[in-house]
Amino acid sequence: MKTYKPVDPFPAVLNKQQASKFLGCGRATLDKWIKEYDDFPVAVIGGSYRFTKSDLEQWVKSRSQKHSH
After folding, report:
1. Residues pairing with 51 in the sheet
2. Is 52 left (phi over 0), alpha (psi -120 to 50) or beta?
3. Burial class (CB in 10 A: 0-12, 13-18, 19+), 14
4. Which of 60, 42, 62 lies closest to 52 in space, CA to CA?
5. Does pTM surpass 0.85?
6. Distance CA 69, CA 51 (A)
């Protein structure tokens, strides 16, 4: 019997479009968060914005913990 793993549609490193889909927000919201939050996990490489899934997940988790108290 084969075991199937769910397929993750997102690569480990995301561009802006992929990051906004991953976070469930629009591009305008993503741009706002990049400007508004100094701790937003983004790298600019050759003028292109890049995000790692793990850093985004950690950032969302840290934001939800700050606002749940």
Report:
1. 14
2. beta
3. buried
4. 42
5. no
6. 27
